[in-house]
Amino acid sequence: MNKIKIIPFEMIHLKAIDLREYEANLGFLKNLDEDYFKQMELQNNAHTILLDGVILACWGYNFMWKGVCELWTIPSKYIEENGQVYAKVTKQQFRKFEKIYNFHRIQMTTLADKAHIRWMKFLEFKREGILHKYSEHGDNFIMWARAI
Predict the structure, then answer these.
(1) What is the CATH number of domain 4-147?
(2) pTM of the model as a whole
(3) Distance of alpha carbon 11 from alpha carbon 35, whole angstroms
(4) Whether 23 contacts 72, CB under 8 Å
(5) Is 10 strand, coil or helix?
(6) Which of 13, 57, 126, 131 is such that its CA lies 20 to 30 A from the CA of 108?
């Protein structure tokens, strides 16, 4: 049986996570923006999801203004084989904090691929638009939002 644990995010988790190849090649993760992630740690706006003691993903949110936040997630290479578990846990966690903070809008950008589209639809986000050549590698991303 898989044991899920959600713990407060710490910078050390980013150094310990086994990244997927795509994320491992992103400049901001290679050259870790420690100030940004340290803020997430200090503000308690981020969490780490463990599955049987292994980091499945780190995720958090930035408050943009009252009632609105933007989510981020850094998945490990174990996401693909544990996609259903990850989707279920993130959906529960996102619903929990949208009630706590009384958000009326939550948004997120993701890579424009089948896996991300399926995940965001499961989370009941609506596609708002394509961000053409958005990444440092020229990949297209999608802006998603959930208006509550």
Answers:
(1) 3.40.630.30
(2) 0.86
(3) 10
(4) no
(5) coil
(6) 13
